[in-house]
Amino acid sequence: MENYLAPSQYNSGGWISNGLFNSNVSPDGLKGVFKKDGTLRSVFKNIQEVPLYFNELNESLLEYIKAVSPAMGDW
Q: Residue 23 — φ and ψ, nearest 5°?
């Protein structure tokens, strides 16, 4: 999974690998995710919503398949 990082005066922006989902995160790696006060950095502010989004997407797809499947018969 990747995150989009908007270009700014500090970086060129673009798509970056999301280490929270792609690998085990080391304690040093967590410094890039959390601020010193323990809150998530702005780049990761919506990260907790990702699993919810995919669950809702899966449920929607399942409902669609169940609705279309009887109409198509035994194709």
A: -165, 175
